């Protein structure tokens, strides 16, 4: 096949599994948890490494921030033979029990972003693949990682969340934020719903595990609110989940 336009590589890498951080700077760190990690390619926001896990080739590739670049990454990786995706990212807690340093396994995502509306009407849910989700939960349990599994909010505007008062649409942002919390939403991030919808339409499998950096609701309520930028627990959970899947499915 010809090289895909944005990632700038073809299907000769041989990977059917991929771990997807948003940050290009996190790719090498994740790849170090694989066997024989090696740089593969870099173009635009897409930095890719390859490695092996349980006898299978695994790619680690950044998606950049937000829905549009994530959709392109999944579309083009699928064209090159990748059928299984695990996003490893960061999030801000929303539910009070979710604290910095925990991991959140996103079983589904609120589609408060624009990319997936150009794929399927908004009534269609953004849901993780059950096999990958179960493997993530099992992996986190095996590793002794403090974990939460449930719904996350996926948004387009980082500053719309953190500074809604200066936004002309702030009334809507604040009201919906309160609605998501009342409904039991665990955390907020920016890529999961796009990953889930695009994967669903392509016929791929996808899951997501997130490091909780902090929780602004705990801050607002004057509760203990540790900040944690160490993504190692989420990375180890994703790698162990892939190992479980590969060994279980052959």
Describe it.
This protein is α/β, with parallel strands linked by helices. The protein has helices spanning 27-31, 67-79, 130-143, 158-162, 170-182, 192-202, 216-220, 232-249, and strands at residues 17-20, 35-43, 46-53, 56-61, 84-93, 103-112, 126-127, 147-155, 187-189, 205-215. It has a five-stranded mixed barrel. α2 (67-79) packs parallel to α6 (192-202) and α3 (130-143) packs across α8 (232-249). The longest helix has 18 residues, at 232-249.
What tags apply to this protein structure?
single chain, about 250 residues, alpha/beta, Rossmann fold
Number of H/I helices: 8
* Residue share in β-strands: 25-35%
Q: Tell me which CATH architecture applies here.
A: 3-Layer(aba) Sandwich
Helix/strand class: alpha/beta
N-to-C order of helices and strands: EHEEEHEEEHEHHEHEHH
What is the strand arrangement across the widest sheet? 5-9-8-6-10
Q: Which bin fits the share of residues in helices?
A: 25-40%
DSSP, total strands:
10
* CATH level-1 class: Alpha Beta
> What is the rounded Rg?
17 Å
Number of domains: 1
Summed over residues and divided by their number, the pLDDT gives a mean of 97
From the N-terminal CA to the C-terminal CA, the straight-line distance is 26 Å
CATH topology annotation: Rossmann fold
- Name the CATH homologous superfamily: Nucleoside phosphorylase domain
- Low-pLDDT ranges: none
Largest sheet: 5 strands, mixed, barrel
Tertiary shape? globular
Q: What is shown here, in short?
A:
The chain is α/β, with parallel strands linked by helices and 250 residues long.
